[in-house]
Amino acid sequence: MEVDDELGTKTVVAVCDAELLGKVFREGDKVLVINEEFFKGFLVDPDEVIDYIEKAYTALIVGERAVNIALKSKVIHPDAILKISGIPYAQLVRL
Asked: What is the Cα–Cα distance from 74 to 80, expressed in whole angstroms?
């Protein structure tokens, strides 16, 4: 998980399942890049993931485990989940 805090006001959280880090998935003209520079930060347990996402201004959540954690805690809606090559992902933006 990677957390960026811009001026202490707008936190961006990037969460992915660890085994997806550094991989690229393609489906037709869609591409999902799990870039290490963007996603690699530190490992956290599921409860910590929710704490960070709940405080985030923006979050990108990728992978079965990460998306399921966010879904079960109701920080994302099931309709917000998309898939590329079977890999689920969701984006959260608070306005």
From this structure: 11
